[in-house]
Design a protein that fits this description.
Layout lengths: L1 H28 L7 E9 L2 H16 L4 E16 L4 E16 L5 E20 L3 E18 L6 E18 L2 E10 L4 E8 L1
Antiparallel strand pairs: 1-2, 1-8, 2-3, 3-4, 4-5, 5-6, 6-7, 7-8
Length: 198
């Protein structure tokens, strides 16, 4: 009985030491590991909705006299990822984008558009160069769009499909780091932010 108890304690001790060694290695090297969690916040430029508004206004202004002053915010993104393996993560992201248009001559507000987006996502990490992790990914979800025209038209509230493809993303850092992505869709042509893994 004593031998069996000694063997069980040794097996448990070896298992604990191996798990501790793996945790220490991950902390030192910053390697992605199955079971890790990640929180991130970012900001994008030239998202799909912003590009559609800019191009639509430019088309209308080309055929009708007048011009408008445009301003936008976002997309501002917050997200969570879970690593199902050392190469693949899945998660959920929420974002906010707004676009406002005003007549240049009178400064009258012509429209305000708000986009509230929720997209599940997946990313595949295909390269590692000493702390720089390269990946590609896809996001698909829903967007609640609020449009408040100021020119007498009815308000529009509707749900539309939200998509984003990340052609190339790079994450730098170990536990705390930052990232830069290039792609097309609701997150913008380029977006960047900070992330923390635990």
């Amino acid at each position: 009985m004593r031998k069996l108890l000694t063997i069980m304690v040794l097996v448990l001790l070896i298992g604990c030491l191996q798990a501790h060694a793996q945790t220490v290695e991950e902390e030192i090297t910053g390697k992605i590991a199955k079971g890790q969690h990640e929180l991130y916040a970012g900001y994008g430029l030239l998202s799909g909705p912003v590009l559609v508004h800019y191009l639509g206004d430019a088309f209308l202004e080309a055929f009708f006299s007048g011009s408008s002053r445009k301003s936008f915010v976002g997309p501002i993104m917050l997200g969570y990822s879970y690593f199902v393996s050392d190469k693949v993560s899945v998660g959920l992201q929420g974002s906010y984008t707004s676009f406002t248009s005003r007549e240049t001559s009178t400064d009258n507000l012509t429209s305000r558009n708000y986009y509230y987006v929720l997209m599940p996502h997946t990313q595949y990490y295909w390269g590692d160069l000493g702390g720089a992790y390269f990946y590609s990914g896809a996001k698909a979800g829903v967007c609640y769009k609020d449009r408040f025209p100021e020119n007498g038209l009815d308000e529009q509230h509707r749900v539309i499909l939200a998509l984003h493809l990340t052609a190339l993303g790079v994450r730098f850092g170990k536990k705390v780091g930052f990232y830069v992505e290039g792609g097309a869709g609701f997150d913008g042509v380029v977006n960047a932010g900070a992330n923390i893994r635990f």
